[in-house]
Amino acid sequence: MNRAIFLDRDGTLIEEKSYLSNVSDIEFINGTIDGLKLLQDKYLLIIITNQSGVARGYFTEDKVREINQYIENKLLEKGIKITDTLYCPHYKNGIIKKYSIDCECRKPKTKLIDIAQKKYNINLNESYVVGDKDSDILLGRNANCKSILIKNSNYHNNEKSDYIASDILDAAKFILKLKRGGHQ
What we know:
Blueprint (H helix, E strand, L loop, with lengths): L3 E4 L24 H8 L4 E7 L10 H17 L6 E5 L22 H10 L7 E4 L2 H9 L3 E5 L12 E3 L2 H12 L5
Parallel strand pairs: 1-2, 1-4, 2-3, 4-5, 5-6
Helix pairs in contact: 1-5
């Protein structure tokens, strides 16, 4: 079975922008490239992201896919292969009727991880969810994964994570230390 790192996108890999809708606004957070390089030989790298801006009418699913593809391509240029990117376009209080539902794929619900687990034969107990919000930490708990909270402007840690990291590089070092027999 494979192991995976389920990565939040905004505020974790790239700088948080209010409802990001333009690739020119994408900025990778310091430590992202080096951290992902450390992890990619031992873990599948899968992005799991809530994109409620679709339901809110701020942008389309095509725009979300364009941005996700741009991120994957930029990472590939740096030698990093993202296995998959899965997103939830729903928000129950949205204005676009088709997307204004209480779905099973919006974090902290686990449908997107369930899809990835089946598609890539992932051992969830040996996998991590890494993100900057309590919903990411709850996702990890709900999916029986370990969780790492990235400490940034969204930092709350109301939901207790397994580790609090300053960035993806710090998270990667923690994960790999555990795998070499280190401690939490």
